[in-house]
Amino acid sequence: MSLLKQNTALFGENIPWLEGLREKARTVFARIGLPTAKTEAWKYSYFKEDALNKPQIDDTPHQCDGHCHDESNLPFATVEIKYCNGKLTHIAHDLPRGVIIRPLYEAIEDGEIKPYLNKSFDMEKFPFAALNTAFLDEGLFIVITADTILNMPIYLHYHQHAGMNRLCNIRNIVVVEKGAKATLIEHFDGENAAQYFNNIVNEIYVGTGANLQHYKRQNKAQKAHHVALNSVQVKADGQYNAFIVHGECALARTESYVRLTQENASAEVNGVYRLAQNGVSDITTNIRHLAPHTNSDQLVKGVLDGKAKGVFQGQIHIAPDAQQTTGYQLHRALVLSDEAEVDCKPELEIFADDVKCSHGAASGDLDAEQLFYMQSRGIPLNEARQILIEAYLNEVFEKAKDSAVVEWMRDSCL
């Protein structure tokens, strides 16, 4: 497998447990390889390695003056962290009380990260997470200590420059301890001409009574590939709320693997995608209810034009002991072109008998009568279409918790 043939020096090659983990990951990825059309979880969005055009890990020293991150223009205060070309280049100074943010290598060096690293998923089931582990080097260890209420978001801005086709494997470990509350924003973008493959893994641990709001805005270059796994564990009375926005990209796949491990744990995974050209958006979820009185909700809406493709795969799993559980899931898409495609695979896997679960899916075009009515009132066709699209997507945006963050994210797809 040529993706493994990267001659690059990685941090910690003298740390036996770390090298052992990397070697195990290399063995797993070499055996299972890239997903194919026969890989059930990837059959709608798999790609051949040739599509990546031989990306390389960039091991040259990188100097970033930060100007490439000015375009974010956030209308609210944040704790800012910057990745440039796949390398961590900046962590905000003067962190709020109760917040610990360290480069991954520091937490590996002193062993503090060992209870969390690669503990939330099985590499056999997530091939790109195995690839990420094989080149484990860049990333963060973020801890929100017990009972801390963080009043501003932690903002991770990932930016890519043109000039080199990079393979970027980034691992972030986020621990929200008992009773803590925080917001995490991830923003991915790149120069128009840039070609790269971002392979992101976030391992997220939400403690008892803790709350994490997780926002993701992906608006990349046309030739970029983006694969991300959010592997989440939620304890008793904890809440994990994710909101995903996908824009243009050759392929953007965000997979949420959420395990509700104790009573009254809850999760929301909502999303919006809008593609107008020939990109692919894949929002895949797997919510696993493993204890009684757990709750989950999912709403994803998309708008497709040109030769774009939208994919939603959502699974709700109810374990035998997870009685009095609720799980809801809904996907809808507007297909504005005869050449656009939408693939949807909702799944319920229920092994308990006292539950409330439902799933649904629908797709269609804009309402011709509504368009005619608006044009008859003097509204130009393109403006009328835009008004209807905004109204269609607003149902999802209204589910997000932070209005300032929502307005900023809305700009990327409306």
Summary tags:
19 strands; 414 residues; alpha/beta; 9-stranded mixed β-sheet
Question: What can you tell me about this protein's structure?
Answer:
The chain is α/β, with parallel strands linked by helices and 414 residues long. The protein has one domain. It is 16% helix and 41% strand. It is built from six helices and 19 strands. A ten-stranded mixed beta sheet has the order 2-1-5-7-9-11-13-15-17-19, with helices on one face. The protein has a nine-stranded mixed beta sheet with strand order 3-4-6-8-10-12-14-16-18. The longest helix has 17 residues. It is globular.
Cα end-to-end separation? 40 Å
Number of domains: 1
Uncertain stretches: none
Tell me the series of helices and strands, N- to C-terminal: HEEEHHEEEEEEEEEEEEEEEEHHH
Measured on Cα atoms, how large is the radius of gyration? 21 Å
Average of per-residue pLDDT values: 93
Number of strands: 19
Task: Please outline the major beta sheet.
Answer: 10 strands, mixed
Strand pairing plus helix content: what structural class? Answer: alpha/beta
Shape: globular
| Relative strand content | 35-45%
The strands making up the biggest β-sheet line up spatially as: 2-1-5-7-9-11-13-15-17-19
Count every helix, treating DSSP H or I runs of 4 or more residues as helices: 6
Helix content: 10-25%
